[in-house]
Each structure stands twice: as C-alpha cells, then as structure tokens.
Amino acid sequence: MTTPTLVTLEDIRAAARRLHGGIVRTPLVPAQWGDPARPLWIKPESLQVIGAFKVRGALNAVGRIDESVRSRGVVAYSSGNHAQAVAYAAATFGITAQIVMPRETPDIKVRKTRAYGAEVVLCDAGQRETVAAELVERTGATLVPPFDHPDVIAGQGTIGLEIAEDLPDVANVLVPVSGGGLASGIGTAVKALCPRAQIFGVEPELAADTAAGLQAGHRVSMPVADRNRTIADGLRSEPSALTFAHLQQVLSGVLTVTEDEIRSAVRELTFKAQLVSEPSGAVALAAYRRHPLPPGPTVIILSGGNVEPALLRDILFDQSAAEDQRH
To answer: Which residues form the Tryptophan synthase beta chain-like PALP domain (predicted)?
Structure first.
C-alpha cells in the first residue's frame, strides 16, 4: 500500500497567499464565560461568505486547476457546506458546477447551493460519490472532493495559520471531524507553528468512526444508516486514506459528544456568544464542556452556521433552553 503524501506547512502558506482577499480572516472571539483554567476562544468560520469553513478549501482547489481544464466546469458531492463552497468558487471563476447532494440534506443548504448558480443533483443516501463519478465521466468536468484532496486540506489549514498568528501560546484546539480535511489542515499548521499545542478531533457518539479508527490503528467503517442518526448532518462522512494518515500524525485524540450535548452547545453559542451554529459546528464547544483538557488557552472551531431555521427554533426553545440561559 502506498503511503499518502502529507500536506506541508508550505502548502498551507501557499494556499493562504492564494486565498488572500477572497475569504474572511475570521477573528478569535474571547468567551469570558469559559473555564478560567482553560480560557476559551471561538474561531467562527460561520462568518465566511457561504457560512462555513469549506469555502477555503474549495477556492484553493478550484484555483489550482489548470485554466484550460477548469473551463469544463467542476463537480462536487456534499451534504451541504462543501456544496455551497464549490458553487461559490465556480461562480467566482465563472465556470459551471454540478453538485450531488443526498435527498436528506437540509433544504436551506440545497437552496443556498442553487442560489450560487450551481445545478443540484439529488441522490439516495450513500450514492453521492457514484453519481458524481458518472457526471465527471459524462461532462469532462473536474471533481472537487469535500476532503480527500491535498489542495482542499491546504485551504482548510489556513485556519490553523490564523490561530497560530493570533494566539501563539494556544494549548488546545478542538476541531469537528467528519471526512477529516479540516482537522488535517488545522492540525498540520498548528503542530508546525505551536508544537506544544494539543489538537483534538470531535465527533458525535453516533458517528464516531474516526475515534474507533485511531484506537484500532486503521480506518473503521460505520454503516451509513448508523451515521445518519446524528443531528450533526455535516459530520456523517468517514476519513479517506489521505485524511486518516494526517489525523494519525496531528491529533492528540478524538473526543465524542452526545446529541443532547450538541443541542446544548448550539444554545450556548446563540445565547452567550451571539453566534448562530449548525449542530455540526457546535460539537467542539460540547467537547470543551464535557471533557477534561490540559490547562491553557483553548480554541474551538465553530465550523459552520447553516442551520435549518425550524431546527434552530426547536433547539433554542426546548424545555432545557431556559435553564441554559440562566447559567
């Protein structure tokens, strides 16, 4: 088996130069209500133009395609945020985009993807990669995968560069994990620039394939039906060989959280930080609340804010919401 070539700090720095002026350089927002022994900082990637971090990787990857090839358009598959990111990147470069999305994708993400001018192709659960491959074969467009590509990983890694620049004494960074591109990129950058920092991936208990894989020393697969049980719809993918190799190198561990803890974290971010988070974006805060961490400055990645309004209403105003607001 060929060992994957890992993304380097220079790859990430090159991506940062490429993305300069095209993305939001998100701030580190101090959360005064955090644990004094572990001062809390929020990295709100929900402030990006498409409402999630995915725009970094998509713009970097599409920008790296040779212009003569790029003119034939791009294809992507995604449960939502990568879909919007590739649609936005395609519009930025003036090319066509066909985006394959599972039928259960929240409607708000489908609508936003179409709003950027992309053609959305809906498919059954577990079929998106197959459908995307058929589109590439038929159209000659270039596939931009959601995480299994070095240019995508490097683009997401620019978040890590910003953390290291803004908080060089960071002790802990908590990153949502699904396909693993975000944690791979952030972990590579932060470990290179802040070698004492601990990088923790975070997963829902109902989709904890990465936690199981790292413990076993190899990738572990979970049935799609099992992973689809979590409310965190953006965290239902599994790492590729490429991202798993990165995660083995950069993660200190993977922390898991329950569905109730995810909901509570969405409420906490809304009422205490005044930040809207989708469930997938709130898992890092849920882990900060649940798990003991080494002392020192701690950064959580709020990876996205594209939540269905009806779901957000249900989360914010359930019976426990009032209790959350009092503490």
So the answer is: 22-304
Catalytic residue among 43, 46, 54, 78: 54
Residue 153 token pair: 């990983």
pLDDT, residue 323, reads 55
Q: What is the pLDDT of residue 320?
A: 56
Question: Does the pLDDT of residue 164 top 90, yes or no?
Answer: yes
- Between CA 182 and CA 172 the distance in angstroms is 16
Task: Please give the full DSSP string across 165-183, using - where no structure is assigned.
Answer: HH-TT--EEEEE-SSSHHH
**Which structure tokens are listed for 234?**
């953006």
Given the residues 178, 237, 280, 303, select the one marked as catalytic.
303
- Determine the Cα–Cα distance for residues 127 and 283; give it in Å rounded to an integer: 26
Helices (H), 140-227: 150-166, 181-193, 209-216, 224-227
Shared domain check, 296 and 245? yes
First to last CA, the chain: 52
Active site residue 191: no
Region at 73 (left for phi over 0; alpha for psi -120 to 50; beta for the rest): left
Same domain, 24 and 153: yes
pTM for the model stands at: 0.93
Three-state secondary structure call for residue 30: strand
Range of the domain at 159: 9-51+149-325
User: How would you list the strands of the sheet with 142-143, edge to edge?
Assistant: 119-123, 97-102, 74-77, 142-143
Same domain? For 166 and 209 the reply is yes
CA angle 223/226/229 to nearest 5° reads 150
Beta bridge partners of 102: 123
For tokens 């992973």, the residue is: 227
pLDDT at 107: 80
Nearest to 138 by CA among 58, 59, 73, 94: 73
List the alpha helices (DSSP H) in 20-106. Answer: 54-64, 67-70, 81-93
What is the pLDDT, as a whole number, of residue 139? 93
Question: Is residue 272 annotated as part of the catalytic site, yes or no?
Answer: no
